[in-house]
Write a structure and sequence with these properties.
Layout lengths: L1 E4 L6 E4 L2 E2 L2 E2 H9 L9 E4 L4 E3 L9 E3 L8 E21 L5 E7 L2 E2 L4 E2 L5 E21 L9 E11 L1 H5 L4 E10 L2 E10 L3
Antiparallel strand pairs: 1-2, 3-4, 5-8, 6-7, 7-13, 8-12, 8-13, 9-10, 9-11, 9-12, 14-15
């Protein structure tokens, strides 16, 4: 089901749309966070994340947590193949300490979580281990506060593979440039895109 958000209410509107036999929501979330179409995002918890077009760090849209009440949560997740670096922009509009956005890698939350009325902030985390890693963004409320209109946003998602993976990429080739320092040539390897 596709989830869009009204400009006025900031609440998701569900539509039953399928694309090529797949749930369009998967592609919708990837687009919302500026990820490649083949980067699969799942959503769950007490309310699904959805694409909204009222605000974004880039391209005018972002993924937003679903509307939740006290002691509820809304989660969005994806996987990456390490090693590499994950980078994204995130922000919240919540009562400080009562609603927070938590980012987790392989089930381990990173500190600090984001809470309060925050501007867009970049989060960048290096994952040095090889293998598949689960990334999850969870907006959660405690039982003490349930103000309407609280939410979290994620945008500008990037997965940057480590150099070792880039070297194995057939679309990249090594070349060497030379500079003279003290009269001696010094080779400096660098990467460039393969010419077609």
């Amino acid at each position: 089901a596709v989830k869009e958000m009204s400009q006025v209410s900031r609440q998701p509107v569900k539509q039953d749309l399928l694309l090529c036999g797949q749930d369009f929501e998967v592609l919708w979330l990837a687009s919302a966070v500026d990820a490649p179409a083949d980067q699969v995002f799942d959503t769950g918890g007490d309310a699904d994340w959805f694409r909204q077009t009222s605000e974004g760090y880039s391209d005018g849209d972002a993924a937003q947590s679903g509307p939740i009440g006290p002691n509820e949560k809304s989660s969005m997740s994806t996987t990456v193949s390490g090693p590499g670096t994950v980078r994204f922009q995130w922000r919240t509009s919540s009562e400080m300490g009562h609603g927070k956005l938590v980012f987790s890698i392989d089930g381990s939350p990173l500190e600090p979580a984001l809470s309060g009325n925050t501007p867009w902030e970049v989060q960048e985390v290096n994952i040095p281990q090889a293998g598949v890693h689960a990334l999850e963004w969870t907006y959660v409320k405690d039982g003490a506060w349930s103000a309407e209109g609280e939410w979290a946003l994620v945008d500008a998602f990037e997965w940057i593979p480590a150099l070792a993976e880039a070297v194995d990429n057939p679309e990249l080739v090594f070349t060497t440039s030379y500079a003279r320092l003290g009269g001696e040539p010094n080779g400096v390897p660098w990467l460039k895109e393969k010419e077609s």
